[in-house]
Design brief:
about 80 residues, four-stranded antiparallel sheet, 1 helix, binds zinc ion, single chain, mainly beta
Length: about 80
C-alpha cells in the first residue's frame, strides 16, 4: 500500500506523524504505526515507527540503530 502525500508516494501503510530535519543525505520519519522494512546498511528486516530515508529515495532505508551509528561516526 502506498500513501500519496507531499513527500511523494510513501511505500508504507501508516501515515507519517513526524518529519525530522535532514542530516546530510539522511532524513528520519516517524510513522503512526510500526512498519516492516529492510535496512540497507545492516541488512536486517526491522519493524519500527522510526524509518530513515537515504537521499530522498524510499527504496533506500536505514534503521534507527544504523542512523545513530552514522551520526556518531560523523562527529
Ligand atoms: Zn540497520
Amino acid at each position: 500500500m502506498t500513501i500519496k502525500s507531499k513527500l511523494g508516494p510513501i511505500p508504507f501503510p501508516a501515515p507519517v506523524v513526524k518529519i525530522y530535519p535532514k542530516r546530510g543525505p539522511l532524513q528520519q520519519f516517524r510513522f503512526a504505526k510500526a512498519t516492516s522494512f529492510r535496512c540497507e546498511r545492516c541488512g536486517r528486516v526491522k519493524k519500527s515507527k522510526l524509518v530513515v530515508r537515504y537521499e530522498n529515495d524510499w527504496s533506500r532505508l536505514l534503521c534507527n540503530a544504523c542512523y545513530g551509528t552514522i551520526l556518531s561516526e560523523r562527529q
